[in-house]
Each structure stands twice: as structure tokens, then as C-alpha cells.
């Protein structure tokens, strides 16, 4: 793998706090995308007492060549106790904002929409003041399933674009660029009170013009919040990093995104979809719906 530049080095985590978060997760038998996807910010987020919960098991039904989540294991049956265990974790961690995501569950008729709803309801019941963000897969274009999730009224509906249109077949072979845009457009139409969000990885061979085009496409479907971060190769088996993008380029993209009308653009080499996601609480005060 290519040697990382200086700007991609991360601070050493406070291991005492990290251990406390891990202890709670193990005690409640919960998974996090922080661990399963080898996120570089795990130390910082766990030290701050935050985590992005990965529901419906750690085994994905897709094999995206950029992602470190396991796709070789057989997906698990849905656990009816998971929503309550997740709510207990949110309570024990005293989270003001929680991100709930999942692997792709193409084996389920609704793509796992019902489990998202159960988790939203459990958290709302236990921690009514906690804001909830769901980071969902594309549900194979099952828009009835999308309506089911939105009916539970999450505060933020996040679905990542991941890359530019030209690279979709290479990066997300089982995904569709237009379907991602349609999901975000439908979310805005179905539930205009829910903030929509998406994320893009860079360094996979895209051009600056292609990134700007993708940003324009996302604004055209009403996406409110955008994250931009550097792709990092998890293992030798995954897609190579084609380029390491310097911090000043992320600054330029952030300024461009703000000029397009995004309510928030979080852009830096280490930005990930759920990085500092709790900042949306401030955004909601500035732009109430």
C-alpha cells in the first residue's frame, strides 16, 4: 500500500475512554462500523464517547472493493433484541446524537427497513432528546421500504454516493449512481422535514470536475449535508489509492459546496460520513424545519 502523507496521521487515542466504549459495546453485543470498516478516526471518536452503530450483523451481501466490511460470512437472522440493546448503549454512553447504519441486506425483502424503524423507536423511547441519524443502503430501489424508514421520522437520512458517476461500476459494482440520487430526491419529497446527507470518497481516480459535478447533482436533488474524505486502502485486496488529495483541495471543495447551497459541507482528508456527525444538532437550530 502507498505510504500515507503527513496530513493523514491521526492523534493517539485516550485508551481509557476507548476501552470504556468497547466494554459497553461488548457487554451489549453490538457492532460498530468504526471497527468493522477499520475507520481511521476510531480512536478520536471512541475517546469522545461516540460510535456509529452497525445493525443487522457485520456480514454484507455485497462485495464493494473499497470496503473492509466482511462479505464472505452468511448474513445473520434479524435479532429482535437488538433495538433495545442499542438504546441501552445510547443511554449508557449518554449520546446526544446517534448514527445508526447497516450493511447491505439484499437478502431481506425490505432491505432491513423494519429493523431501522425498531431501532429508531427504541432510542426515542429511551433517550427522547437524542437526535437520530440513519445511514442507509440503497434498499435495491425499494421505495416502499424507504417510506417505512422515513415514517419513523429520523432527524437525518444519510445515504452515501461514495464516488463519481464514471467510477461507479468499478467502486460500487452493485450500486447505481442514478439510484442513489433518486433515493435522496425521494427522501426530500416524502419527508421534507428530514435533513438529507451524503458522502463522497476521493483519491480513486476521479477528476476535480467530476467531484464538482457530483456535488451539483446532489444539490439538485435537495441534499442538505455533504461529507468529503480521502479514500484509504484497507488491505492489499482492496482498490488502490490513486492519489492523496491535499487539505487545501478539500478547502476548495468546501467553499464550492457552500456556494451551491449545502447547509453544511464537512471536507478534510480524514472526514468520514459520520465524523463529527453530532454537529448536525447545531445545524438544526440554525435551519429549523
Which helices and strands occur, and which strands form pairs?
Layout: H1 15-27, E1 31-32, H2 33-36, H3 42-47, E2 52-55, H4 82-93, E3 97-102, H5 113-126, E4 131-135, H6 143-151, E5 156-158, H7 168-171, H8 177-190, E6 195-202, H9 208-220, E7 225-230, H10 247-260, E8 264-267, H11 280-286
Q: What would your notes on this structure say?
A:
It is built from eleven helices and eight strands. The protein is of the alpha/beta class. It has one domain: Alpha-Beta Barrel (TIM Barrel), CATH 3.20.20.70. The protein has helices at residues 15-27, 33-36, 42-47, 82-93, 113-126, 143-151, 168-171, 177-190, 208-220, 247-260, 280-286; strands spanning 31-32, 52-55, 97-102, 131-135, 156-158, 195-202, 225-230, 264-267. 38% of the residues lie in helices and 13% in strands. The chain has an eight-stranded mixed β-sheet with strand order 1-2-3-4-5-6-7-8, sandwiched between helices. Helix 4 crosses helix 5 (113-126), helix 5 (113-126) packs parallel to helix 6 and helix 6 packs across helix 8 (177-190).
Question: Can you tag this structure with a few keywords?
Answer:
38% helix; TIM Barrel; 289 residues; eight-stranded mixed beta sheet; alpha/beta
